[in-house]
Amino acid sequence: MKKTCSDCKTRFEVKLEDIEEGDHVNCPECNLEYTLIYDSNGKEKLVETKVLEMEDDEDEDDNEYSDYDSYND
Question: Region Disordered: what ranges (predicted)?
Answer without folding.
Answer: 52-73
